[in-house]
Amino acid sequence: MQKFEHGGDIKSVIRENNLNEIMDFSANINPYGLSSNIKNAILADLDNIIHYPQPNAEDLRKKIGETYNIASDKIIVGNGAVEIIYTLCHILKPKNALIVSPGFSEYERAARSAGADIHYAMLDEKLDFNSPMRDIIVNIKGNDLLFIGNPNNPTGTLYMLEDMELLIEHAENNGCFVVVDESFMDFIKTSEAFSVLPLVEKYHNLLVLHSLTKFYAIPGLRLGFAATDHEVLDPLYAAKDIWNVNSLAQAAGMAALDDKKYQRRSRTYTRTEINYLYEELSTLDKLKVYEPTVNFILVNISKTGLTATQLREKLLKYNIIIRNCANYPGLDENYVRFAVRTREENDELVDALTEILE
């Protein structure tokens, strides 16, 4: 199970290290924090937990459709985007799954749980993990399911819409179903240049996955959605619980998608902090910092003389937790990932790293 561990388990870290508080750089959550509108919507809906939630989150699906300009009858809402990944794998029952790597570990875990053999299309570190799309396409043949993050976690790799369509079209011609995970796309102001959501109407071998928990800072509620063709959507609905999304998560989702001010300010604030933390980390000579596209930064620490495990332990003394990336296929103990946090927290991280690496 260690292979599939994630960041963000701060309760365990606090308990195991006897800490009172911690700055969590291990989970890629919007540093702008929880919207007051979302919080108020949850509180206002609290008394309704004596009732069942709306089946299949019908109102929320309509709101998602309006927000992302996609037909609501192409959408399914999940108890987190990860639930949809697992349900999909157990429906498709792929024999061979191709994963663009390094990538989110739940792709592999879900595919393995459905009996698939796993293959990797490795992004090239020599190209700062920005491999050309043709290097992924050549791996498709012989696979019946492909997972790709766009933007990709943890590398930040981001492909243009035109490149993504080439991939999807080639996969369709080779009998391969494509899952494009756009869980971090909301952080990108010009998302229309990258998002493949409009292609759901065109291709039958495409499912676009989207998280609402990262951008809206509600990972504890678990909320995500996917858009796909009815050939896959109908079996997804048949395979899931009709009350899979609780009423508080549905209320939070409705409020989140209506909160245009929060969306605008979040993108501005987060972009400022992404640029700031990247520039500050880049001043530390012993770090190789890969240029970020969204709210996390991958770093090669091989020149520090420390392993990722050792650096993580040292930073815990500063009440800071980071993501050790050694369990990502294609990475090892030379890699860590820093989430982008508030200015004060980002400064604390840079100060701690400066002292450790002196």
Automatic annotation (TrEMBL):
Which GO terms of type biological process are on file? cobalamin biosynthetic process
Annotated function: Decarboxylates L-threonine-O-3-phosphate to yield (R)-1-amino-2-propanol O-2-phosphate, the precursor for the linkage between the nucleotide loop and the corrin ring in cobalamin.
For this entry, the protein name equals threonine-phosphate decarboxylase
Ranges for domain Aminotransferase class I/classII large:
21-353
Q: Which cofactor does it need?
A: pyridoxal 5'-phosphate
- Record's InterPro entries? Aminotransferase_I/II_large (IPR004839), CobD (IPR005860), NHTrfase_class1_PyrdxlP-BS (IPR004838), PyrdxlP-dep_Trfase (IPR015424), PyrdxlP-dep_Trfase_major (IPR015421), PyrdxlP-dep_Trfase_small (IPR015422)
What keywords is this UniProt entry annotated with?
Cobalamin biosynthesis, Lyase, Pyridoxal phosphate
Supply the EC number(s): 4.1.1.81
What organism is this sequence from? Answer: Megamonas hypermegale
- Recall the GO molecular function terms of this protein's record: pyridoxal phosphate binding; threonine-phosphate decarboxylase activity
Task: Provide the catalytic activity annotation.
Answer: O-phospho-L-threonine + H(+) = (R)-1-aminopropan-2-yl phosphate + CO2
EC primary class: lyase
Q: Which gene encodes it?
A: cobD
* Signal peptide extent: none
Q: In which pathway does it act?
A: Cofactor biosynthesis; adenosylcobalamin biosynthesis
